[in-house]
Amino acid sequence: MAQPILGHGNLQPASAAGLASLELDSSLDQYVQIRIFKIIVIGDSNVGKTCLTFRFCGGTFPDKTEATIGVDFREKTVEIEGEKIKVQVWDTAGQERFRKSMVEHYYRNVHAVVFVYDVTKMTSFTNLKMWIQECNGHAVPPLVPKVLVGNKCDLREQIQVPSNLALKFADAHNMLLFETSAKDPKESQNVESIFMCLACRLKAQKSLLYRDAERQQGKVQKLEFPQEANSKTSCPC
Ligand SMILES: Nc1nc2c(ncn2[C@@H]2O[C@H](COP(=O)(O)OP(=O)(O)OP(=O)(O)O)[C@@H](O)[C@H]2O)c(=O)[nH]1
Question: Is the CB of 67 under 6 A from ligand 1?
Answer without folding.
Answer: yes
